[in-house]
Design goal:
Layout (H helix, E strand, L loop, with lengths): L15 H7 L2 H4 L1 H13 L2 E2 L7 H5 L7 E5 L24 H14 L9 H4 L3 E5 L4 E2 L11 H15 L4 E5 L1 H4 L11 E5 L4 H4 L9 H11 L9
Parallel strand pairs: 2-3, 2-5, 5-6
Antiparallel strand pairs: 1-4
Amino acid sequence: MSNLGLNFSELIQNDWKNVFSQAKIWERHAPLFEEVAEAYRVSDVYPPIQHVFEAFHLCTFSSTRVIIIGQDPYHGPGQAHGLSFSVPDGTPFPPSLRNISKELETDIGQGLGSGDLGYWAKQGVLLLNSSLTVRAHEAGSHGKMGWISFTKDILRVLQSEKEHVVVLLWGNHAASFAPLFDMNRHFVIKSAHPSPLSANRGGWFGKKPFSRTNTILKELGLEPIQWV
């Protein structure tokens, strides 16, 4: 499937493997994966190819109980590692992540110690960008490749096969996915995007998405997310 000698499907080895197979994800989006493979071959693309599906690798289908939808990966060197809003440990926080940390401190009393949100994913938080790849230094550059259609298919499966998932939609782009969810089956919490331009206009700070999520989970008899 990949011009780099990598079959993208080999990157999915947990219970998502059956989900992708049953939903015919590989067949339906074969042109997308061919185009992505070619992009990696001819240009600098983030995240590193082995981390394209990191969100699924760290957060199994069965454990998914919260979804946070980002737009596309960070496009600077060393930032993107396959999880929305997250950066590898030790990497300086991008502006959006700084504002996430500020809201966490206000909401639950403590900000982030590391920008690596992998520990969220391992608790059942699917950190899914709507585009899983991006060309270096060109935000949104892979947005028209077909990733949006792929993401919608994944969200449709979650909508139909699971119940009581908390969906955090930050900003207008993420909010565009709200119609995919039945509000009688799932919980959708909307706010402004944490980027400085949006957050400083209002609608991000003080919305308490983290404590609100945990309140819902507790009411469902589920363990709350340890955000920090």
